[in-house]
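Handover notes (outgoing to incoming on-call)

Open items:
1. Cellobiose phosphorylase: sequence verified, structure written out, both below. Nothing else pending on this one.
2. Nothing else urgent.
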Amino acid sequence: MRGWILVERNEIKGWKFTGKNGEFRLPQPDRSSFLYFPLVNEGGMMSSITPKLHGQATSGHNTFLTPPLSVEDLHNSRASRNFWVYVEGKGAWSAAGNSAKQNADFYQDNADESELEAGLLWHRVTRSNKELGVSAEITSFVPCGEDKVELTKVVLTNTGAEKITLTSTAAIPLYARSADDLRDHRHVTSLLNRVYTSPFGIEVQPALSFDERGHRVNHTSYGVFGAEENGSGPVGFFPVQEEFIGEGGSLDWPEAVVLNSKPAIYSEAELEGYEALGGLRFAETVLNPGESHSYIIVLAIEGERIDVPVLMQKFGTAAAFDAKLEENKSFWNDKVNTVEFQTGEHDVDQWMKWVTLQPVLRRLYGNSFLPYHDYGRGGRGWRDLWQDCLALLIMEPEEVRSLLLNNYAGVRIDGSNATIIGSQPGEFIADRNNIPRVWMDHGAWPFLTTMLYLDQSGDLDFLLQEQIYFRDVFMNRAQKRDTSWDAEAGSSLRTASGEVYTGTILEHILLQNLVPFFNVGEHNNILLEGADWNDGLDMAADRGESVTFTSFYASNLLDIARLLRDLKERKGLSTVELAEEMTVLFDSLGEGVDYTSVSGKHEQLERYYAAAPNKVSGVRVALDIDKVAADLERKANWLFEHLRSNEWVQAEDGGGWFNGYYNNDGERVEGEFPGGVRMTLTGQVFPLLGHAAAPEQIPNIINAVEKNLLDDKIGYRLNSRFGGIQQNLGRAFGFAFGHKENGAMFSHMTVMYGNALYKRGYVKEGRKVLDSLYQLSADFATSRMYPGIPEYINEQGRGMYTYLTGSASWLLLTMVTEVFGVKGKLGDLLLQPKLVQEQFDNNGQAGIKTIFAGRELEVVYTSTNRSAYGEYQIQGVTLNGTPVVLQHSLEGVIIPRAVLNALSADKRHLLEVELA
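Cellobiose phosphorylase C-alpha cells:
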C-alpha cells in the first residue's frame, strides 16, 4: 500500500491482507464511495453487496429479486438489504448503517465504527454504536452449487454494561421483475404482484412477465425468508412497502421500525397489487452485557413457487449457514489456487489471487449485473469469448477444447462473425436489432487463443475438426443483406443443395484472417469498419483504417504459415482441404494480385463474395500445404514492409512510433501536430506483440510511450490528448480526457503492452508496466477499490468498472507464461523465466503452481545470488528430485510432453529449476 486516507475525525488505512487466500480487512469501508463486492455461484445467482448492504440480487436481466441499480444508486437509493434494531428506550438503529439518523451522524463523533472483512467470495461487515451499546456482525455469501440463493447471518451483541431489549426487523425490497420495468411501467407491473407469507417469510410470484418478450404467464418466484438462531421464524411480516414506511416515511426511516409498530400480517396471508417488501419482524429478545443473538436471512429465486420448508431446512439455521460458508470458502479457494504465485512480494501474490478470480467472474456475470456494468442483458461479446479462454486455458484447461470448438460456430463465410452470443456454449443469434455492424478486430482473436491452446496441448487434430458456420441476413461483412435468408430455416450456413455445411477449424481460421487482408482502405490498411478493440472508435466506418490491427492480422498470417509447416511435419499432411470458393483468397496460387493496388485487392475480394454469397457449393479442393503456407508468408511479409515503411511516425527528436489509425476523412490520426502530439498505446502494442515492429524500432517505441503516454498519477494512458470530439473517428473523444477510452489508463491495453515487452525481451520495461498496474490498483487512498485490477483508472486515479475486465485474463497469462516462463510449445513444456531480483524471496526462490499436460505442477526457480534477468540461465532441472535431461532451444529449455504424461495425474509434481 502507498498511502493513507486522511479523514478529519480519524485516520483510515487502506485494506490489508490478513490470510493466505486473499482475505483482507478494511477499516471504515463506508467512508469510501462506490465500493461493491461480487457474490455469485455457478447456478446463476448473481449478487453485489456494499459495506452498507446496498447492491442487487438477480439471476438474469428479467429476474431481479432486488431493484436493479447503477453505481450512482449505491449512495442515492434508500433501498438495501436492511436489518433494523429497535433498542428499547433508545430508538431505531440500522445494523447495515442505512438509517436517516446514521447518515446525519456520519461525520460526527458519535458515528458508527465499522470494519470490512472479505475473502473468496464472502463478505463481512462489523458495525458498532457506542451510545446504543450494540454491535452487528453481518456475513453474506452466495453458496456454491446450483441454488439461486443469497445467505446472510446477522449477529447482534450487547457491547454495553447494561441489559438491553431488542426488536429486530429485516427489510429487503422485493422488486421481483425485469430490469426493463424499473422505469417503464414501474407501477403497472406492481399490480401483477402476488404476495404470499409463510412461517419463515415473504414470497412474490408476479402473475405475468411484463417485458419485451410479451405478457406471458410468469412462473418465477422470489422470496425473503428468515429465522433466529434457534430455528424459530419471524413473529410477523411487513409485506407491503408503503405500509412499512408509513405516510411520509422512507426506507431509511420507516414508521414500522421507528415507532416499533406491531406487524399486521402473519403467516399464510396473501396480498395483491403492491410494491412488495421482505419485511420480517422477529421476536423481542433480551441481551445481557456480552451476550449475542443471531439471525439467518435467505434470499431466493426459483422457477416455480418456492418450497420454503425444504429451503429453510437446507439454509435456515446458524449451523447450516456456517457449514455452507466453509464449503463456499473451500470451493473458491480451490478454484483460484489452481494457479498460485510465491515470490518475495507477498502482497502482490495475494493480490494476484483476486486477479485470477476475475476471469471466472466474467464468465459468470458476463459484462452485466454489477453496479458499474449497468448495460447489456447478460452474456459476453465475441471478443470476450476468446480472451476469457486465455485464463481458462491456465485455470480450467479441461473445459477449453469444447468451448473453442463451439465458439467457431459463430464465424460467417465472409470472415466476419455473429455479434449476439446466446446463453449456451456455441449459441449464436442473429442481431436482435437488425443493425449491420462488424468489428474489424474480431477475426484476429480466435487464432491467438487457439494457438495458445495448441501450444499448451499439442492437439493439432483440433485444427482438422469440423464445425458449422453462422449465417444471418447480413453478408459481405454487413455491406449487403441476403434477401433469400429465412430466419425460420435456422442460422447455419448451407450448401446450394440446402445441406448444412461444415468446414475444418483451420478453414475457419484462414477465412477470418484472409478476408481482411483484401478489405483495405485507401492507404492499404485494413478498414476500421464498425470499430476495432477500442469500441469507442466507432465513427469512421467509411474511410477509417485500423493500422494497429493490420499488424495483428499480418502476424497471424505468418504464424498460421508456420503452423501449417508444423502440421506437415508432425501429422504428415501434404494438402489442406478447403471450400473451393476460398481458392480465390490464395491469389499467388493463381493469378497474383498486386498488393500495392487497393483496387486490385477490392476486386479480388468481390470475386470471393460473388463465389460465396451466403452459401457455398459444398465442394472441397485439396491445396498443397507448402504453397498455402508460402501464400500466407507472402501476404504477411508484404504487410510488415508496408507498415514499417508507410506507417512509422518520425518524430522531430529522432525517435518515432507507429501510427495506429486513419479517420473517416482519410487523415492519419497520429503524429506531431500544431496542437500537440497525438499517439495511441494500442497502435504500439500490436506491432510489438507480433512481428510488425522491427527490432531496431522497439527502443524508439518505448521511449515515445514513456514520453507521451506515461502519467505518474494514472499510469500509461490509452492515448494522448487529441483535442475536440473527433466525430470523424469515434465517440471515445466525446468523453472527458482521462476517462474510459479517451486517455484513461485502460488496464487491458496496458497489460498487453507489458506482455509485448516481455515477449520482445524488454523485461525491465515490461516489469515496470505491470508493477504500475499493481501500485495504482493497490493504492487504496487513491484507487478506492478492493483488491483486483479495474477496467481503467480515471483522471483522479480511481479504479473504475471493477471485477469484469479482460485485462485480468491477460495479466494472469502474462504472469504464468512470460514472467514465470511456464508455457507450451505444441504440447511440450517450455521453461523461459523472466524473473527480476525483487521477485526472489530471501532464499533466492520464486515459485508458481499451475496446470500443464493435465498435471498439477509446482515450478520453483532458485537463484542463489538473485541475479537480474539476463544474468542467469537454466543450469539444471529436477522433477520430483530426479534430474531431467533437457532439450535446449533459443527460448529456454524444453521438457518433452512424454515425460509429463508418464507422471501420475492425481498428485502435484515438483520441478526445481536452478538458475545461475
